[in-house]
Structures are given as C-alpha cells and as structure tokens.
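protien #1 (seq + structre)
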Amino acid sequence: MRSALVALVLVLTAAAARAELPRPVARAFLDAGVPLSHVAVVVQRVDARRPLFAHQPDAPMNPASTMKLVTTFAALELLGPDYRWRTEAYLGGELVDGTLHGDLTLKGHGDPKITIEQWQGFMADLHAKGLERIEGDLVLDRSHFAPIEHDPAAFDAEPLRPYNVGPDALLVNFKSVRFAFEPNAAGDAVDLRMEPPLPQVALGPSPTLVDGDCGNWRRSVSGSFVNEPEAALVAFPGQYPRGCGARDWNVALLDHPAYVHGMFAAYFAAAGGTFGGTVREGRAPPAKPFAALESAPLHDVIRDVNKLSNNVMARQLFLTLAATSGPPPATIDGAREAVHRWLAKRKLAIPGFQVDNGSGLSRTERVTARGLAQLLAAAHASPVREELATSLAIAATDGTLARRMRNGSAAGRALLKTGSLEGVRALAGYLQDPGGTRWILVAMVNHPNAARAQGALDFLADWTLRNAASYTPPRH
C-alpha cells in the first residue's frame, strides 16, 4: 500500500511539473532526453509582474554565458555606456632628437579589446610624436589589476584555447596568435602566415598540400605547440587538404608580458622605430602620459561580449567593475562585491546567486530563471535598455544565433544571450511578437543531455512568439 501511494505521489508530482509548461514545450525537452526536473523556464511580458508561465523559476542553475547579462547590465549602469579604457605610454628619460634616453613604460587599465589594428595605430602615434629610438627597456605597468592566479588548463584541460586566457590589466589582442592556411596561387603548396608576427614564436614549415575534402583538417595538419612563458615553438608537419581553402587556427601563446613585448617589438619596428631592449615589470611615473590609446566606448564593447559571447572580454569587464567599489588594484572579490552591491541597490534579490568571474565560463556560477527575468525587466525599464538590447544576438541574423532559428517565428524577432557549456544550455533575452508585445524569455538546462536540448530551447522561443499572446495557463 505504501509503495503504491509513493508511486502515485511521484506521478502526480511529475504531472504537476509538466503542467507548468505548455505541453508542446514540455514534450520538446522530454523528446530531447532532458527530464523537466533539470529545466528552468520563465516567460513573462516585459511590463508584467508575474510570468505567463514558469517552471522551476527559483531553482539555482548554472547559467553558462547568460551570466554575461548580469555583468554587462551592471557595467552599463555603474560605468556608463560611454566609459572608455586607456592604455598609456610614459617616457622614463629625455627624448632628444628622436632618441629616448631611458625606458618606455606602458600602463594598462584593463582594456578588453586592443586589436592588432588599434595597436598598430598606437605604435604609429608614438613614432609620429617623435619617438624613433629607445635606448632603455620596455616597462609594463600591470598594477591596475591585482595579480590573479590563473591556470588556463583548469576549466577544460585546453590551455591553448583563446577563451581560456586569463584577465590582465595590459591585455593585447587577447594574447592570441592566428595561423592562416591557404593553398598558394600555383596550387602546389600551402601558404602559412602567423599574425601577429611575434619574434618569440618560432614557426616550422608549412604542411604538405594534398587532394581531398577538408574533414578534420586540424588533426590532419598535426599541429604541435611547445608553449613556454617567454617563447614558443609551433609546427604543422602534417597534410592540408586542398578542399579546405582558407582556414584559421587561433592559439593562445606566451605569458602576458612576453606577448606584449613581442607585439611592441614587431609593430614599433613596423612603424619605423628602433628598440632592442628587454621587458620588465614596473610602475608608471607620476607624470603626464606621452601618448595614450583609448578604447571604443563601453556600449560598443559589450556587443562583442554578448553577441559573440567573448569570455576574455567579459572577465576584463567584470574586473573593471571593482573600480566602482574601491581604488585599484582591482580584485575578483572587489568585482563580486560591486555586483552584489549593485543588485541590492537595484532590489534584485536572486536566491542562490553566485558569481565567479562574470563570464559564465565557470562551474560554480548560479542564478535562477526568475532572477534573470527580473534583471531583464529592470534593464528594459532602465535608461540603458537600448544599449543592452542591441548587444544581444539577433535570431537567424548575427552572433551566436546567426545559424539558429532560421525557419521559425523567432528569426529577426528575438534578441537573446546564449549559454553553452558541457552539460549546460541556456537562452535569455527579449522577444517581440507580431502584435508588438514584448516578452522576456529565460530558459536553462543543466543535464548531461543539455546539448540535445538546443532544439527545444529554440522551439520554446518560436512557440512563445506564436502563442503567448493568446495562451491561457491551466489552473491547478
């Protein structure tokens, strides 16, 4: 009798759980092999106090990259949409007839995105201002961020992947190197280029060009990487299939000081300068900068953070938030304190909320679906709503959604942040239905079969756009 009663309770509990979601939506997750006990969903009008429907809205879940919504919204409000980072150059001696009799100091403030083109412009500016030769060393002032112990292999044992690069006050080009492969014009060999051309990275011969389809071309070229803090050796001794055409392989090499040293040596020389010194750590003098590189405004920067889900930029931005709660150096704890203080001021209570590095590339970060929905509602009512909304990927159009939702109602009507980790899939953002009603959608899956739930998440967005305006939830 007792076992029968327990079984009945379990059946009724499962039925109630399923009833919280529209049946077609619940069936989509179940068909993907994901139990509904591992799914959290909130769908709500942007101007409503309560969800239209919700499922496990208060269960703390790993949000993957949808955590970037917290970081970027906090940044827009705490720093301002027009906030800019500066990277400064200081002269450590007299500049006479183009020659600096002393060291050149570069001081970083955590710029999340210094591209090769921007760096080239910075080097050209130094030369144009009269700096032609440096007799001293390159001194790097990275003190704006406190030293952070970072193991690039810790998350997924992939230390050379650019997304595993740690934050740094003087981050340049994401500390990454692009190896570009392409069959040459004669069709008998492979042209191999390294960008940037770092002098500390030795590059072996190109792979052999062979006929065939592309397939798993990275395995075919047999990339070999010996990566040390101050030097690296890269070789591709295998074969490159002709059917691949042009391909890129991006790798994170060297440590931060060696990488900046290489970037400076390569591009200062390209600008016409002469430098033969070494690199060392130090502090910028209390003087006016000789030159400065200014970043794009924050509202532009967060488009890469959210549309492209750039983890390195998100971590840089997260640490920058520490400056809003105390003086530098910025620390992880300071950034967490700034976010918690901002949430409290915003009266956004999220039970079980845990922020690790602000990017979502974490196994410990937690947020609830209701919490993210409340955050999105607050953002929609905020003066920075357009900046946040336009930073999200547009379904079937760009960013991480460029190839998703192409054949449904969501195409062009959904502005969403995606989230993807092993065992995690998530979507969060805004939908606008054909009648002009705007909806908030938050959905997270934490389950070993989460990768199979991507179609169910896309279906949820499509179903909401087609049916939410006329949907009446069943009464329990």
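ok now protien #2
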Amino acid sequence: MRILGISAFYHDSAAALVVDGRIVAAAQEERFTRRRHDSSYPANVIAYCLAEGRIGLSDIDHVAFYDKPFIKFERLLETYLACAPYGFRSFRMAMPLWLKEKLFQKSLLARKLQQAAPEFNWQSKLLFSEHHLSHAASAFYPSPFHEAAILTMDGVGEWATTSAGIGRGNSIAIGKEIHFPHSLGLLYSAFTYFLGFKVNSGEYKMMGLAPYGRPRFAKAILDHVIDLKPDGSFRLNQTYFDYCAGLTMTNGRLADLFGVARRGPDDRLEPVHMDLAASVQAVTEEAVLRLTRALADESGSRNLCLAGGVALNCVANGKVVRDGRFERLGAAGGRRRGRFAGCGARRLSHRVRARTSGRQRTR
C-alpha cells in the first residue's frame, strides 16, 4: 500500500510517502522554496517523495489530506453567527478567501494532482482525515509503541482543540475532546500576541522568555482567564479574547487584568513581560500535567504519545516525563520540526530529563 500524505494551505506545507507502513520520505515545502512557513501546495516535496520511493503519482493507492475543510468552514460560520453582529469585519475579510479557495480544496487538490498525472483517479484515491486524528497518527505510528495513550493539544482543528485516545496496533480511537473556542494552544498564542510576538511562530520565543521571569500572574490567569478542572479539562473566559470573530487575539480586558499594556513588536522587553511569559507557561504546564495524569489513570497505559502544537512545548514535556505517570514518552509537533517526525524510546525520555534538569540548575 502506497500512501501520500499532504498538509497544505495553512502553515508549513509538507508531504510524506508511506509504503506498507514504512515512512520512505517526508519534508516541508519551505526546504525547497526557501520561504519560511510556506503554506502553498507542496509540489516540490511531493516530487521529492515520489523520487525517493522510485514511483510515479499514478502508482499511489491513496492521497490523504490532513483535515476536513467543510467541517472547519462549518465551525467558522457557526462562530460568526454566534457572535453576530460583532465580528462582521472579520467575516467580510474571511469569506472571499473561503468561497474562492479554501472551501473547494478537494477540487484544488484534484486539479493539482491531475496536472502531474492526468490519469490519476482522485475521486477514489483522495481521502480527508480529521485534524486531530492526523496529529495522533503522526505521533503514534512512528513511535516504537504497539499500544499507547495519545494526547493531542493545539490551537484548533475542525472543532477539537484537545483530544485524548488510545492507539493499538494499526488503529487509533479518540475518546474525549475539548472544542473551540476553549484551547490551550490559543491561550498560549493569545499571550504570544499580548507580548508582541508573532502568532503561529513566536510561541517558542515566549517559552524561551519564561525562565527569566517569575510566575506571579499565574493565580490571576487561573482565577479569571481559564477555569482549569482537576482532570485537566478547562474553559476559557472569552471576555478576555478576541479571536472568535475579531481581528486580534486579545482585547483591552487582559491589559486591565494585569495592569500592563500590550507590548509592541519593537518595544523593549521588561521584567513584567518575562513574568507574564513565566505565568502562562506555568499555567500551561499545570494543565498538561492534569491532562496526562487523568489520561494515565483512565487508560492504564504506561506509554504516552503527545501531538499538536502544544506538544512542541518541551519544558512542559519534561515536566510530564519527571511526573512519572508514564514510563515512555513520544511526541510529534504541529508546526516546526515537521508534522511527521516522531520519537518515543526510553532513552529519549532520559535525554529530556538531562536537558530539563540542567536548565533548572542554571535558572
């Protein structure tokens, strides 16, 4: 079975070729175009993967796309209707792009594939996976585990922002989900925006800034911004955010809560900004720990696969390793480092311990 996986039209377009369950080749389009976060159709990566596999596109049994655009469009419409008339400006800006391109991604993909191989039967070969299932697969299938608990956390897929399930053999079952607009990824990105960094690429800067501050705003975040339950489930207080139908991630109420104005991209970094980064990092770590502890109790598994953009938070991952609820840990992120990269052996867990313990000593 030859399967070509494609991720495109949002950020960091990529493709991977899997033959009989083995990854033959995988890469991001930006490696070929030299355009950072290139979101275009990954024609160069597809050509590379096929060349590595020494096959043509017509030899592919299935082409799998990483999410379901129609369900995502449904979420967009329902969100705008729920917020109406607020958000009309954002709605007016988003709709032309969706109606022109994003809503018809199946046709766009079919056209691109048939340009490369006119005989390609896209009607029978083109498949669409749910976003979080794609994330879960990217972590579980490349891992060394025959069975593992799987936790996916990101900004948002179609509706899911956090999902938990079990992988066994060649199957994955998603058991629980938290839906938009409640999202750890969007919470982290909102603070990324508030601290003057670029959303969807500056989150790692905020994570790197956190060790220089004190989490003195963590209690305020937990008291007012996020309602975090003992099992890790949560709800975000939407009065502090503007991402549902507005043009920004946060509004003025977040500045009022902390008594700090939003930092501009070129403004000087002050200690208060470091404290804010440390605070949201601490809250994120606590949320992830509660989620993984509950998943360990419910699943009974000793193996854990983490996936999605929040799984790129290596400091939180280190806390999960040291927590000891799981013996072995594997992770695959959602933006940088490649959607298809996986890890998971015990020796990797030891390396995480060494790195994070070293970081603790130098703080």
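Residues 271-299 form the longest helix (29 residues).
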